[in-house]
Design a protein that fits this description.
The chain is α+β, with helices and mostly antiparallel strands and 63 residues long. It has a domain of 38 residues. It is built from one helix and two strands, in the order αββ. It has a two-stranded antiparallel ribbon. β1 and β2 form a beta hairpin. The longest helix has 24 residues. It is elongated, with a radius of gyration of 16 Å.
Length: 63
């Protein structure tokens, strides 16, 4: 991995902390989250839908 400048590392750390806090909040509230895993979006959480509509908002297939 390449060495990041201190400013860049600070920004990355801030983004990671914000994402972590948001995912924790969603979990506490019982909301599902969408994460990227194995080169595709995954819905995680107790209330996550069982099946994802594979259509984009514009009506074109995502696959």
């Amino acid at each position: 991995m390449t060495q990041l400048t201190p400013d860049t590392q600070e920004m990355l750390d801030s983004l990671r902390a914000a994402v972590s806090e948001t995912l924790e909040r969603k979990q506490r509230l019982g909301h599902y989250a969408v994460i990227w895993q194995d080169d595709k979006p995954m819905l995680v959480g107790e209330d996550a839908p069982d099946q994802v509509d594979r259509q984009s908002p514009g009506g074109q297939a995502l696959d």
